[in-house]
Write a structure and sequence with these properties.
about 110 residues; mainly alpha
Amino acid sequence: MYAPGAGYPELAEIRAWIKAPATVLPDPELELMAGAEQLAQHHLLVWSQTWPPSDLPDDLEAAFNRRVARHAAAKGIPLGVLGADAEFGTVRLSRWDAEIEQLKAPYLIHAIA
């Protein structure tokens, strides 16, 4: 379940950021995506020594929004894909996003396996 607050945006703010109208991406689906990405971000990164964590830093909020946008795009929702791209075949979403990696790098939990 998605829990906005402490720096995490409301669903309306996420929707505005990814530019996906409610007719294309209903609130229950967006909430599931945001919740999954919020949980993943909490398990991967550390930005506060207190619990519950203090407000999300701006760069991690940007990474979170981008993660939700990628999650939505993977579902097949067009997020700014130009029609001209279809000329070159199927457009696939990469598994790795350099921008997300750069935004979250200072907060990664490093572990030796």
